[in-house]
Design goal:
By secondary structure, this protein is of the alpha/beta class. The protein is built from seven helices and twelve strands. α3 crosses α7. It starts with a strand and ends with a helix. The chain binds adenosine-5'-diphosphate, the ligand CC(C)(COP(=O)(O)O)[C@@H](O)C(=O)NCCC(=O)O and potassium ion. It is found in: Cytoplasm.
């Protein structure tokens, strides 16, 4: 039994999933997420998950192909390279592919002026969105450290999009750069106009995030809006256009890319 290992290394967390051969898009046998500070737990969590996987087929569970979208820099790449070389994982180095933004892949054409400048997590999210909703003009918002909001046409062209500070970053920039504003925790959008500082900050940051998604939806005249990422549970309820909350759109895109290879 040979699994595909998908890894989405963002600027806050490393997410991973094991997909059995022929699995439905996004249907993982095991998955996990580790903050960078706790990322050292990743190799043992992966080894334990692999050992307990009992998908279809025979033989001991093993990792076949590995596809990694890393936007967290060279140090994280070096760390992942070292961990994936652990003998107990039995991963052959040539099986590891570092996913990159190409002019075209898995039915998506990348219309960025310089295609390789596009964050590879955004390209993967576009592939995932198009694979989930072919024939739709899509806006995909990935709400992580940064929030990215991108437009994909029904024929699979990634047009480009927006980058803004993520919800956590927006809120912490206020706390760090003002004398009187506290660090607020993420939460639900307060009703109406906020009558206290915490709610006013949350209200402002959520309105900025949700408003940008609404703006992109209108600009693209989209018929589908996908919201994903660690901050999606807070942002999605504040978005006034029809949308669906999809976990791990980047890994869904990696899965789609492997399936089309
Ligand atoms: N329990 C949590 N742990 C970490 N981040 C969280 C949590 N809950 C919400 N968040 C939000 O999700 C963001 C991380 O989401 P994620 O999609 O993993 O980001 P990235 O891909 O940039 O690593 C944080 O910046 C924060 O705004
Ligand atoms: C915008 C990003 C920082 C988002 O990263 P994340 O919040 O998922 O960690 C990443 O996609 C990136 O570094 N992009 C390169 C620039 C671009 O996409 O134009
Ligand atoms: K992001």
């Amino acid at each position: 039994m040979t699994y595909d290992l998908l890894i989405d290394a963002g600027n806050t967390r490393i997410k991973w999933a094991l997909a059995a051969p022929g699995a439905v898009l996004g249907d993982w046998d095991a998955h996990g997420a580790h903050m960078h500070a706790d990322a050292a737990d990743f190799p043992s969590a992966l080894a334990a998950a692999l050992a307990s996987c009992t998908g279809p087929g025979t033989g001991a569970p093993a990792v076949g192909r590995v596809l990694i979208a890393n936007v967290a820099g060279q140090a994280v790449r070096d760390m992942l390279t070292a961990w994936l070389a652990a003998p107990q994982l039995g991963i052959a180095q040539p099986a590891i592919e570092w996913f990159a933004s190409l002019p075209q892949r898995a039915g998506v054409r990348n219309a960025y002026r310089n295609p390789s400048q596009l964050g590879c997590d955004r390209f993967a999210a576009a592939i995932g969105a198009h694979a989930l909703c072919p024939d739709k003009d899509i806006v995909v918002a990935n709400c992580g450290t940064a929030t990215t909001i991108d437009a994909i046409t029904k024929d699979g062209t990634f047009l480009g999009g927006m980058i803004l500070p993520g919800l956590g970053l927006m809120a912490s920039s206020l706390a760090k750069n003002t004398a009187q504003l506290p660090q607020v925790k993420p939460g639900k959008l307060p009703e109406g106009f906020a009558n206290n500082t915490d709610d006013a900050i949350l209200s402002g940051c959520l309105a900025a995030q949700a408003g940008a998604i609404e703006r992109a939806f209108e600009l693209h005249q989209a018929t589908e809006c996908i919201i994903s990422g660690g901050a999606a549970p807070y942002i999605a309820p504040a978005v006034p256009v029809p949308h669906r909350h999809v976990d791990n759109i980047v890994m869904i895109g990696l899965h789609a890319a492997l399936r089309s290879a």
